[in-house]
Amino acid sequence: KDFRTLTVWQKSHKLAVKVYMVTQGFPKEELYGLTSQLRRSIVSIPTNIAEGCGRGSDKDFAKFTQIAIGSASESEYLILLSNELKYIGDGIASELIDDVCETKKMLTSLLKSLHKSTSN
């Protein structure tokens, strides 16, 4: 499977690019803290989708999809924290959280379909 054809990968990739752009404005003292953590967690979403696609089975793909869901939840929290620390404005934070939540819903649907195919 080509991961680039998956809508959930496309959405999570665009989200990762957006987060990288937003975090460029974070304070320099956060470079190895919150900036790095948020970037790693957000990039983990499309990365795990891509890696799961490259595995040989739907069971393996499901495992990596589950990891991507966890990374999305981590990213959601880090965006909330960044907003409370005033590193991200309310409008941008709301937009990013909406994107993360939509991505989580898409990943959950993908996971359900993978579980169905492995239980047959």
Task: Set out the fold topology.
Elements: H1 7-23, H2 34-54, H3 58-84, H4 90-119
What would you say this structure looks like, in words?
- The protein is mainly alpha-helical and 120 residues long.
- The mean pLDDT is 96.
- 79% of the residues lie in helices and 0% in strands.
- The chain starts with 6 loop residues before the first helix and ends with a helix.
- The protein has 4 helices and no strands.
Mean pLDDT: 96
Count the helices. How many? 4
Rg from C-alpha positions? 15 Å
Structural class: mainly alpha
Helix content: over 70%
Order of helices and strands: HHHH
Distance between the termini: 20 Å
- The poorly predicted ranges are none
Q: What percentage of amino acids are in beta strands?
A: under 5%
- Largest sheet: number of strands, sense, barrel closure: none
- Sum up the overall morphology in one term: elongated
Task: Tell me briefly what this model is.
The chain has helices at 7-23, 34-54, 58-84, 90-119. With 120 residues, the chain is an all-alpha fold.
Keywords:
single chain, 120 residues, mainly alpha, 4 helices, elongated
